[in-house]
Design a protein that fits this description.
133 residues, mainly alpha, 66% helix
């Protein structure tokens, strides 16, 4: 995965290349990175390398947990839009969220999927990849 230092803070298009646009993009990327960590890798299960975040914990609450985590993931997509991600990337992010939501509705299978899928990290990776081009 790419580090934040490699993310360009200038516009891909010739919209406005003023400092505020670059700061906004960098701020959006920072927020996505922080939220993705909180949702997917807040702590590591003792004796393993398995990261667990709020997504895995809240997902244990039937119905409500998956709805809450979906809202947070959609917020990450909103940040990606603000950062200037392309429509194709946004659609891929929405696909990741939709798949996690639908699988999350299945008892036990959805909980296991939350631990292994890490959709918010995937959203971050898609954003960083998009902005690097």
């Amino acid at each position: 995965m790419m580090s934040l230092d490699n993310v360009s803070t200038t516009s891909r298009t010739s919209m406005k290349s003023d400092v505020r646009f670059g700061d906004s993009r960098a701020a959006s990327v920072r927020r996505v990175k922080i939220l993705a960590r909180w949702m997917d890798d807040l702590f590591t299960l003792p004796g393993t390398k398995i990261g667990v975040g709020l997504d895995g914990i809240l997902g244990l609450v039937p119905g409500v947990g998956d709805a809450l985590t979906t809202v947070v993931s959609l917020h990450l997509v909103g940040e990606a839009v603000q950062a200037g991600a392309r429509k194709k990337t946004i659609m891929r992010m929405l696909g990741v969220i939709g798949r996690e939501f639908l699988i999350g509705l299945i008892p036990v299978v959805g909980d296991f999927f939350d631990l292994t899928h890490k959709s918010n990290r995937r959203i971050l990776a898609l954003l960083l990849d998009d902005l690097s081009h």
